Amino acid sequence: MPYTECLILFRNAYSLLGFQEFQGKLEPAQSLKESRCVGGSIPSHATDLFQGEKMEKMKLPLVSVIMPCYNGTKHLAKTLDCMAAQTYKNIELIFINDGSTDDTEVIFRSYERRLVNEGREAVVYIKQANGGLPNAINAGLKIFKGAYLSWLDSR
Known about the structure:
The protein is α/β, with parallel strands linked by helices. Helix content is 36%, strand content 22%.
């Protein structure tokens, strides 16, 4: 997955949670003018969640990200860099290695500790025989725990 698509995915997740991008920074929607919020209004849950607290100290909803991958060495490092750089930490990453025959596992394993150390809620690695994208996504769907769900794929 190209790096820019990964950024857009997480900007969209922030919007669902009541955050908006303002001058290059993600801020709680309540701190912005209503005209800058998606749909022209502040989500009702945003004003409850962001009453004077910093984002790092709040218990925000878990976002599960299913990442199926087959022979993804070309883009995997950039995608995992994007995941590691997210300021929203309450993310469960479910990585499904769909029978890759290249260095996909080696690259993921080199990032796994970094993702955990940077405060991700959970990092799950599943290796399975190649069954195609639908089977890989279904493997993640069976175990995800988040209130919100998204996935990154290699197309």
